[in-house]
Amino acid sequence: MLNFNKDEYLTVTNGALGLRNQIESCADKVMAKGFKNIFLLGSGGSIAIMYPFEYMINSLSTIPAYAEIASEFMLQNHKQFTKDSLVILSSLSGTTEETVAAAEYCKERGITTIGLVGEMGTALAEIVDYPIANYAENNFAADSINLQMYMLVFRLIYNNGEFSSYTAFIDELQTIPEELVKVKEATDPKAEAFAKKYKDEEYHMLVGSGTAWGRTYAYSMCVLEEMQWIRTKAIHAAEFFHGTIELVDEEMSMILLKSEDETLPLMERVERFAEKYTKKLTIFDTADYALLGMSPEFRKYLAPLVLATALQRVSIHLEKERGHSLETRRYYRTVAY
Shortest CA distance to 230 belongs to which of 220, 215, 243? Predict the structure, then answer.
């Protein structure tokens, strides 16, 4: 496949899964210490990764969970944030300004923090109580962080006396790296065709819900806008019919990201509408992938991971067809702002 290093990818994903003992030990320690709620903090792609896990915690557990944008969180005076909160942050570089500041904010208040990073010794890793590191480049960052979050979040839920299938789920997850390679291989022809067809498209509407919403938000803002300078709108399927619907015509490019969770009817409603009113409809659906080794009951949790790895192929082909490097930035980490 174009610009894909299978060995590197398997090293990153298996490396994340190889942290299981460390992550479980961390989750067990913070549970023994005690906490009353969980705050999931991040910026940009990192907060997008947190949104599906907020959804999963609130669907599976009685532990209150809040996914908050780091910079706003520090200004909000959130009344649920107390000395009994547990905070989980992530930054691949370990240097994301707002996330590092949020970690400092928590440290000053004596709040227990866990940080997922790509390298020890970075600013975030030095601040948090429990740093967890797995090396990954930007192109595989979502895969690495998602895998760590499954183990961390579901262990916390399990320790709370909920989700008794934890061990079975995480045992099965050990097989997922090779299956994700198959996802890439299956997606690649579709990704190439999409890139060729839409390389000059000026605007895309992305729709998602539930466990797919975070990836919808991230792919719109952090890839198509940041990395390809293409105008987009990310819209939640539950809100699509409350305004955004009026922008649809037969020339509107719509990209639907479908999961297999409880919110699927919301996506199917948007899909039925889109099939009727636009000629430019693209769907990426987790149900299209076999994911051998994963039990049907666990598939609904895997949308963040499966969609991220599938859409990586779209990014690579857009880069080629548009002649626009995924590494090019005008402003981000380039100028002061």
Answer: 220
Q: Are 321 and 225 within 8 A, CB to CB?
A: no
Q: Contact 331/225 with Cβ under 8 angstroms? A: no
Residue 101 lies in a domain: yes
Residue 14 sits in the same domain as residue 159: yes
When pLDDT is averaged across residues 300-309 and rounded to a whole number, the result is 98
Q: What is the CATH number of the domain that holds 211?
A: 3.40.50.10490
Strand partners, 89: 41, 115
Between CA 178 and CA 191 the distance in angstroms is 19
Cβ-Cβ contacts under 8 Å for 123 (sequence gap 6 or more):
94, 95, 100
- Does 196 lie in the same domain as 314? yes
**What is the 8-class DSSP label of residue 98?**
H
**Angle formed by the axes of helices 141-159 and 303-322, to 10°?**
170
Q: Per residue in 101-118, is it b (16+ CB within 10 Å) or e — as a string?
A: bbbebbeeeebbbbbbbb
Write out the two tokens for 1. Answer: 């496949």
Domain count, the chain: 2
Last residue of a domain, one of 134, 165, 196: 165
pLDDT score of 138 more than 90: no
CA dist list (Å): 174 to 130, 171, 186, 311, 332: 23, 6, 20, 22, 35
Considering the entire predicted model, what is its pTM?
A: 0.96
